[in-house]
Amino acid sequence: MMQKERRRITGKQIAFVPTMGYFHEGHLSLMNKAKEENELVIASIFVNPLQFGPDEDFDTYPRNEKRDILLAEKNGVDILFIPPVDEMYPTELSTIMKVGDRANVLCGRSRPGHFDGVVTVLSKLFNLIQPHRVYVGMKDAQQVAVIDGLIKDYNFPIELIGLPTIREDSGLAKSSRNVYLTDQELTEAVCIQKALNIGRELVVNGVKSSSEIMKQVEQIILKDTSGIIDYIELLSYPRLLPVTEINQEVILAAAVNFNKARLIDNIIFDSHGNLVKRIS
Ligand code: AMP
């Protein structure tokens, strides 16, 4: 179906916005920017079983297809692709994709196989949709780095655009999983972004040692939340290699486990501490 539909569209600059649905303003910002910069926007909703671990929230992942269809229509999406699982994976895969180094840090470490599932489904969607550009959120910066690797390694003729994280007024990154947080946790979660920014300010003020920066970020998060820190990492971006001195573009990222949700946030900045908001 999707392939047939795609073959009918010729001579247009096509943008693709892959999602798992339950739209919030983060998703909508990708759709609107994609529409602004391209002639046609195709979005997908697919909660991809392959990227969820056995103890993760695949079955309970929040869904609201009716609302999503209306929101997509209002936010510049021309075609919304919602394939059922058995259409995406009719048979067991005979070729398995495996992400290298970029999956062995940050979220990849505590979610083994997650990024293998992401590149598998994206490769399928890229082939079905054949977009010129793909729009993704820097909130999932490791995912952006992994997609950057996939596109370059396998010569997908697609331009990757990473757009800034959309936040609540409090500074908390919008996420479909924020619905799992209690009011108390919502208040506490705000400190993750604050701590990361304090880390960046240290760089602006001339601190170059990555261990010093990570230590200070950790202390703030420990002090201000009941959540359990999964990681605080500072790595080169997009290669995601360890750095001891900040002398290139880096990602400073944290993941914190709350009772029912694991929240992630990050910032990317250069060696002077200047924020990098968009990747293209
Ligand atoms: P998801 O539905 O969580 O897979 O997200 C679909 C796309 O939306 C991904 O490219 C995410 O990085 C992006 N996204 C999720 N949350 C945000 C946010 N708060 N701001 C910007 N983009 C986001």
Structure description:
With 280 residues, the chain is α/β, with parallel strands linked by helices. The chain is built from 9 helices and 8 strands. Strands 3-2-1-4-5 form a 5-stranded parallel sheet, sandwiched between helices. A 3-stranded antiparallel sheet has the order 6-7-8. Strand 7 and strand 8 (262-269) form a beta hairpin. Helix 6 (114-129) packs across helix 7 (141-153). The chain starts with a helix and ends in an 11-residue tail after the last strand. Bound molecules: adenosine monophosphate (AMP). Adenosine monophosphate is lined by residues 19-20, 26-27, 29-30, 136-137, 139-140, 165-166, 173-176.
Question: Can you lay out the helices and strands and say which pair or pack?
Answer:
Elements: H1 2-8, E1 14-19, H2 25-37, E2 40-45, H3 65-74, E3 79-81, H4 85-88, H5 106-110, H6 114-129, E4 133-137, H7 141-153, E5 159-163, H8 183-204, H9 210-224, E6 228-236, E7 250-257, E8 262-269
Parallel strand pairs: 1-2, 1-4, 2-3, 4-5
Antiparallel strand pairs: 6-7, 7-8
Structure summarized in a few sentences:
With 280 residues, the chain is α/β, with parallel strands linked by helices. It has nine helices and eight strands.
Largest sheet: 5 strands, parallel
Bound molecules: adenosine monophosphate
Helical content band: 25-40%
Give the integer mean of the pLDDT values: 95
First-last Cα distance: 30 Å
Spans of at least 5 consecutive residues whose pLDDT stays below 50 are none
Class derived from helix and strand content: alpha/beta
Tell me how many strands there are: 8
Kindly estimate the percentage of residues that lie in beta strands according to DSSP: 15-25%
**Which value, in Å, is the CA radius of gyration?**
19 Å
